[in-house]
Design brief:
The protein is α/β, with parallel strands linked by helices. 28% of the residues lie in helices and 9% in strands. The N terminus is likely disordered.
């Protein structure tokens, strides 16, 4: 878009550019846009130029970047978009979320990250500053969980997501060990409705946000399901195949690490036990050979010569 063309459309508030061939965020978009849709384009990554283009859209409330090829988001990509309330990054190629990825989005209410098939690494720090978030879509990714430094204690999600009402995690290969405990404690303490049926969720009354969520749900081809444990297999009977909300805290242990310690200790003791008799045998053989040599060849030790 040229500056003249943008000036002509300076009154524009809603812009749908879905299904085109954009490789970057168009520059010189009307500054007072409230709703920008760029789904199903050819965006690869959000570059510095893209960040500058987005920073000019200070009134933007709805941003749809779904169905592109975005693999990396820099920390603070959206930091200038303080009025943004809805962000759709679903169906991209995200592999991880860095800490403070969504820094600056204190008014964000809806975040869609679902169907990023390569997304395997998310920490609770990725959601820092999302103090107004109410809907978090994370289903259909490759997440083993949401990593937290607090292995069995209070998750920082309690501080980062104090207003979260709904979260969808189904369709992820969840690893149900002790590192899942902080997430489950957060869900229970905050009364977050996990994997609620899409048809039964309560939508905001405000028209712009209501319509954006309804439009996203209308394009969803899956039904909400339970989040279930896929691993660890060494505790198959206790957790695998069970809904994560049905698994007791006692079964969410981390047996692998203590097991390595036990196995290592056992192997060390076993090797020592085997090594001692071997050393004794070698010493005995050496002394036996010395005795034969002295007897048959007349070898004398130094003390004998003296």
């Amino acid at each position: 878009m040229t500056k003249n063309r943008t000036h002509t459309y300076s009154w524009l508030r809603f812009c749908r550019l879905d299904g085109n061939l954009f490789e970057n965020i168009p520059s010189n978009l009307p500054a007072h846009l409230k709703d920008l849709r760029l789904a199903a384009n050819l965006l690869q990554n959000i570059t510095c130029d893209d960040i500058r283009s987005l920073a000019l859209l200070t009134d933007l409330e709805i941003l749809d970047l779904s169905g592109n090829n975005i693999a990396i988001l820099l920390s603070g990509t959206f930091k200038a978009m303080s009025r943004l309330r809805y962000l759709d990054l679903s169906k991209n190629k995200l592999e991880l979320l860095l800490p403070r990825t969504f820094y600056g989005l204190a008014n964000l209410e809806v975040l869609l990250l679902n169907d990023n098939k390569a997304l395997s690494s998310v920490s609770d720090g990725s959601f820092a500053n999302l103090s107004n978030l109410k809907y978090l879509f994370l289903y259909g990714c490759s997440l083993a969980g949401i990593r937290s430094k607090a292995r069995s204690g209070r998750s920082k999600l309690n501080d980062y997501l104090p207003t979260l009402r709904y979260m969808w995690l189904f369709g992820n290969p969840l690893n149900c060990d002790c590192e899942l405990i902080p997430l489950l404690q957060f869900v229970n303490e905050r009364h977050v409705r996990l994997d609620e049926g899409f048809h039964s969720i309560s939508l905001p009354d405000e028209t712009l946000l209501h319509d954006a969520i309804e439009d996203a749900l209308s394009r969803t081809r899956v039904k909400s399901d339970q989040s279930v444990c896929v691993s660890p297999h060494n505790r198959y009977k206790a957790v695998v195949g069970h809904a994560i909300l049905d698994v007791s805290k006692e079964n969410l242990s981390c047996p692998d690490e203590p097991m390595y310690i036990v196995v290592s200790s056992f192997l060390g003791i076993a090797l020592f036990t085997i090594a001692v008799p071997i050393v004794y045998c070698l010493v005995g053989v050496y002394l036996f050979l010395i005795g034969i040599a002295k007897k048959h060849f007349g070898w004398k030790m130094d003390d004998d010569n003296n």
